[in-house]
Each structure stands twice: as structure tokens, then as C-alpha cells.
Amino acid sequence: MTIEIKTSTLEPVRNTFANIERRFGDKPASRYQEATYDLQAETNFHYRPLWQPEFELNDKNRTKIVMEDWYALKDPRQFYYGAYVQQRAKMQEAAESSYGFFEKRNLADYLSDDVKNLLITYLIPLRHIENTANLNNMYGCAFGYGTAITQALLYNAMDRLGIAQYLSRIGLMIDGNTGQSLIESKQHWMENPAWQGMRALCEEMTTVEDWFEVVLAQNLVMDTLIFNLFYEQLDGKLSAMGGRDIAMLTEFMQAWNKDVSKWFDSVLKTVVSESDENKALLHAWTEKWQAKTLEALRPAIKELLEPEALDLAVAELEKRIKKAGIKA
Amino acid sequence: MSAKKLNLKDKYRLLTRDLDWEYSYADRKKAFPYEEFEGIKITDWSKWEDPFRLTMDAYWKYQAEKEKKLYAIFDAFAQNNGHLNVTDARYVNAIKIFLTGVSPLEYQAYQGYAHVGRQFGGAGARVACQMQSIDELRHVQTQIHAMSHYNKYFDGFQDWTHMHDRVWYLSVPKSFFDDARSAGPFEFLIAISFSFEYVLTNLLFVPFMSGAAHNGDMATCTFGFSAQSDEARHMTLGLEIIKFLLEQHEDNVPIVQKWIDKWFWRGTRLLSIVAMMMDYMLPNKVMSWKEAWEVYFEEAGGALFKDLARYGIRMPKFVETTEKEKEHISHQAWWIFYNYGHAAGFHTWIPSDEEMDWLSEKYPDTFDKYYRPRWELAKKMEAEGKRFYSQALPQLCTTCQIPMGFTEMDDPTQIAYRSSDYEGEKYHFCSDGCKHIFDQEPEKYVQSWLPVHQIYQGNCGGASVEEVLRDYYKLNLGADNLDIKGSPDEQRWKEWKGVA
Asked: Given a cut of 60, is residue B2 above it in pLDDT?
């Protein structure tokens, strides 16, 4: 049996905002639609930026990618701010409980020095790569076009700061909250020959001008390789070394990677299907950054994982490239 | 290990700015290229004091809790036809101005903070700006969702983003933020974080939100409460940036002073729209504009500038003009809109007798002397069926872009005109403050997209004003514009309330 509360209904004058109606017709709209489409100013800018007088404040020409409608790059997760923070809050709640459990049971005490060293040398330095990812996604957010893509890039940038902070917390848990492990791991990042290629690459990425290129280099190429190598393959190795519990602390990153891949794959697919020129650009950029990233990763991976590790990671990347239609 | 356990400050440093490093392979100036051209000298970014310490996990958690509550109220508001609880249909016009004039600025703030949140070389400042960027995105989106229900029942909300890019009076807020975003990163922070968020926010955000609270608008007022803790963070960033710049190098002092002078005046001009909203548009008044100015600027701002004096910072230029303007500005601004009510995307009206008495009481030195006679005349003409609208397009101030309707503050019967010559052209201004701003950066302000000039140049569609309003602005003529009397808004309101 159902009960029905009688409410007074007033006939609305319109179902949604006019811009949403022009796009999707006269019907009730979702919160994602009303909070996303056409928010960014399109025309009649008053002054050229002092810092880039060759462009308007909002300008489609900050990338070589051409889209008839930049709002075509919608987010399949339908993240507007409220949806985004609520989803991440759920993930952080799970992470908090894992980190809490790890601390409460003093699981760090059961890690061998070998495992601790490996974390300090190879896992915790990823916080600096996440810092670069934060910068690169902020760059895309600031110079990108249209709320659909720029808001998702901002969420991504903030996520990267969050991941860098989780990685730092792993360090603080194994060093008894002194920060010593972070100092050591930064030393590796700054001086260990195994990392210098990656550090040089991260520095180079923050000087790339085309925002879509840098976002692609980061979110497709580098992320696919890094997440496969350091969160999947390394996970196996840590288990074998008696460091299985670390997986509790990197579960956030794994779940996160699934979530954003879904979004970014869909963005790439839309950009590719827009034109052959876009497809060719994405192809060229993917090749360029794949070669650079592999080269940069090789020394660290050689120390850390089996000889075929890079090939396995590349296969994962090739799968995504193919799925997006960048390569036949 | 023998090292000491970390305190909170050091821990936060490790979780934010320690993620960054000194570059050795790429040129760091190429990665952060905009830090030097404004002449600001940063000798040591590590002296930056984090204005707040919030890690991302805590941010997600707190903000998600806030959103959950906020959206529960939005849902309840819509389900229960919450729009019926506002004082009367006139009130809704205040939030039409908010959605078309202010929400797009929240969007620009999101963009501006994203830009500086990428471009500052100091990671501490960067992270603080990134958090403000995402907060500002929150604000524009929650404002849209708060107004979404009003849009279904009232006219004038529906094309807010299209309007913001085009409509004549909305070029006032738009040019304000375009000005800040097109400036260098340090000027942007002095403009928005300090001059705006810290010094003037109590005169923009708070009046709208208090107006909502006093007029039964639960959606807007709940949004306002929910945004309060974000705003508090933003204000601490404003205070930190000014202290940081002034402490970094003495050469920064005159540059910062110049920006404070500019943005204070730019801000007061923008606030004239809030002034008229408070004095004329709220059926239930919060306080008069003059009172708000005295409490929030003269008292609070006065104390702040006393504090800053030790760095060599003085009160903003033209502050003495604002002391006189607080008596006049709201009346003159509403009069401008009453005159051009056919070209506005919201309704205008003559204040009621009770409201005029309130204005007399709040403005004993000016209202009866200068402004009541105008409204009495307008009332008489309206009673004779001759509600008038000015047909000629007004001249606009090149800097603030408000129609030239403000007077000399020592002689409120005389419209103020100022002008400057630049490269063989004459430019017009509403005040000494606006002229001064132009004279400092003429190459910037000659670019202004002045709506009236653009109409005359044929860049806004049709030849007649009506065509511009209908086709270029996309106003629904006869519904969005004109007097509240006889408007569809008013008719529907009467039907809902069952009054004749």
C-alpha cells in the first residue's frame, strides 16, 4: 500500500534556464546541466590580459585542438561541485578507516626495513609527481575552455593534491610522525639517479604551453604508466616482500584511477570523433609523451620491478589509446 | 628514529609546500612566468604564512557535509513552493540582480584563482588559491541551484549568463572582474582577496544574504550561511597576501598602495548597485546603505587601515568622496534604473509612502531635500497614466561603465563630468576616482567594451533599442522589463496569494 501526501502544485512558467532549454529542449534539467552549460563568458571581454595580450581572457586558441562546442566534453560522472565532494567524501571515509586501522594495529611495525626502504625510495617520491599533476591540471583548468572540461580538471587537480597528501601520510606512518621519511624520499627525488629522468620530465611538463597537450601527457600517458607500475605491479611485489598491508593505504589511489579514467577516456573519445585533425594531434602528442615518459621511467623501474614491467604498463596504455580511438 | 614529532604547522608544510622542489632541469621562470612583470619583489616565498590549514581529506569531508544539508533545504524549498514565502514579488528582483550580476563574478573568481593557483611560484600561496578557486566554483553552482526554483516561477532569471555578457548595466560587474583577471597575479590578489573579499565583502555578499533572511527567501539565505565558512577562509587569504607583499620588500609598498587606491574606488562604484538594492528593493529593510557603509567600511575598514599604517599604507585615495556619496548614491542609482526600466532585465518601481518615510528618516540631510520631490513627481505622472522611460541612450563612464547620472557630491543638482584626452580621443568619466584610474592605465581602459558605444556602432544587432533588447539581450519584452505594476510577475503573485 502506498500513501500519498497531497501537495499544492503550481504550474511553473518554464522548466529550466533558457540556455539549457536551447540545448536540450523545454523540459526539467539535471543539476549537472544547470551548473555546467554556458557558465563561462563567451564574448565582449573588456581588456586583454596583461600577461598574455595575444589572447582574450577566455580564448579557444590556447590549444591546437578545435571543438565546435567545448561543452561536448561532458563528464559521464556528472560531477558538479556538490556531487564531486560528496563522492570524494565517501572515498576518504573508507581511506580514513584503513589509515586508522593501520595506525591502531601498529602495522608499520611489521614492515621490514627492506619494505620501508623501498617505500621511501620508490613510492613516496610519487608525491612530487602528484604535485606536478596538480600543476598540470590547474593549468588546464585556468587555460581550458568551457565549464564542462575546466571544472573536471579542477576536481582532478585537487584530487592530486589529496593523493600527494595520502602518500605523505604513508611516510609519516612509517617514520613515527617525524617527517624523516619525507626528507629522505625527497632526497631520492632530488638526487637519486633513478629518479632524475622523471624529475626532469615533470619539470619540462610544467613549461608546455598547449593546455590540452599537457593534460593529455599527464592524465593519459603518465598516469596510465605510473598507476599501472606503482599501484598495480608494485603492489604484487610488496605482497611478496611481506608488505601486503600497504595495499590498504593505496586503495584510494586505485579506486580514484578507475573513476577518473572513465571520465578522461570519454573526453578523449569526444575530441577524437570531432575531427581527423584532432585525432592526428592526439596521436602525435601521445607518441611524443609516451616515448619521453618511458625513457624517464626506465632507470627507476629497472631497479624496482621485473624486466617486462614497462611492457606490461605500455600494453595498458595502448589499450586506452585504442579505446579512445586515437590509434586504429 | 630520533627526530622530534611534528607540530601541526610543520606537518601542513610537509603536506603542501614541501611537495614542490627547486628545479634543476627546466627553467622555473618558464614554468611560472608571470611573477615579475608587475614589479613586485618576492625575496622569499617560504615566509608565506598559510592563512588556513586544510588538507584535502578534511576539505572533502567538511564540504560534503555542508552540501548535503544545503541541498536537502533546496529540495524542501522546491517541494513546498518556498517562493511563496518571500515578502512580495518586488523582493525577487534583488536576486535577479544577484544571479545576473554577481554569480558570474563568482565564476570569474573560480577562473582567476585557478590561474594564480597555477602561476604562483610559492606552493603555499598556490594551494590556498586553488582552494579558493574550487570554493568559488561551489558558490556559482549552488547559487544557480538556489535560483533554479525561482526561475521556474518568475521572469528575468532565465538567460542570466547570456545577459551577463551583453546587457548594458551588467558590463559594470563584468568589466570589474575582467579588469582584475586581466591584471597580473599579485594585483589580482590585492583586487579580489584584499580589497574585495577582505575590505568590501560585508557590503556585497552580506547585504544580499541578510536581505534574503529578512525577506523570507530561505534558499538564498541558506546558501549564504553555508558559504560563510568559505568566505572566512577567503578573508584570511586577503589579509595574508597584503602582509606578505608588504613584508617582502619595501619597493612593494607604493605598488600595493596604487592597487588599493584603484580597487577601492572600483569596488565602491560596483557597490552602488548594492546600495540601491538595500535602500529601494528590499520590502523588509536590513539597514540603510549609509548605515552599512559606516559600520562596515568607516569603522571596520578604518581600523584595518590604522593597522596597515605601520607598513606605510594610507587610506585609499578618494575615501573622503565616499563619505559624501553614502548620502546620495543609492537614490541616484535607483533613479537611473527607474528611468531606464524598459531596458533592464528586472522590474523597477516607485517607493511606497511608508518606504519614502523610512528613507527620510535614514537620510535626514538629503532625501527630503533632493530625492523625495523626484519620486513625488514620478508618482504624480504615474497616477496620470504617464509612467515615463528615458528614451535616449545614456553616456557611460569609460572606467566603471555606469551611466553618467551621479552628481557632484558637493552639489547634488549637478551631474559630474570628467574627461581625459588620450591619443587624440576624448574619454568621459563619472568621477575623479574613475578618471584617476583611467589616467594610470589608459592603454587598458581604452579597450573597454562600452555597451552604448557598441549599440551605436551596430555591434549589438538591430537598429532600434527594442531590437537590441529583444534580439541581442534576449529579454522577453513586456515580461522581464518595465515597471513591476502590471508585470506578469505581479499578476502571478496576486493569483498565488489570492489577492485582486
From this structure: no
Tell me, what's the ipTM? 0.97
| Stated pTM of the model | 0.97
Q: How confident is the model at residue A5 (pLDDT cuts 50, 70, 90)?
A: confident
| Residue-level pLDDT at B1 | 42
Whether residue A38 lies inside any domain: the answer is no
Record: contact A31-B145, CB cut-off 8 A = yes
Contact assessment for residue B353 and residue B393, using Cβ atoms and an 8 Å cutoff? no
- Give the amino acid at B67: E
CATH number at residue A217: 1.10.620.20
Separation in Å, CA of B31 to nearest CA in chain A: 5
| Binary contact (B6, A95; C-beta < 8 A) | no
The 10s digit of each residue's pLDDT in A264-287 is 999 999 999 999 999 999 999 999
Decide if A19 is inside a domain.
no
Per the domain annotation, does A229 fall within a domain?
Answer: yes
Cβ distance of B30 and A12 shorter than 8 Å: no
Instruction: Give the Cα separation of B494 and B490 in Å (integer).
Output: 6
Domains in chain B (CATH in brackets) are: 31-349+388-497 (1.10.620.20), 354-381 (no CATH)
**Spatial CB neighbours of B89, under 8 Å, sequence gap ≥ 6:** B154, B484, B489, B490, B492, B493
Q: How distant is the Cα of A312 from the closest Cα of chain B, in angstroms?
A: 29
Closest alpha carbon to A16 in A30, A1, A3: A30
Domain containing A109 equals 77-324
pLDDT value for B404: 94
Q: Which residue has the cell 546558501?
A: B223
Residue B376 pLDDT > 60, yes or no?
A: yes
- The number of folded domains in chain A is 1
Q: Quick check: is A268 in a domain?
A: yes
**A41 closest CB neighbour out of B3, B37, B165:** B165
What distance in Å separates the CA atoms of residue B77 and residue B84, rounded to the nearest whole number?
A: 10
**What is the distance in angstroms between the Cα of B111 and the nearest Cα belonging to chain A?**
6
- Confirm or reject contact between B228 and chain A (CB < 8 A): no
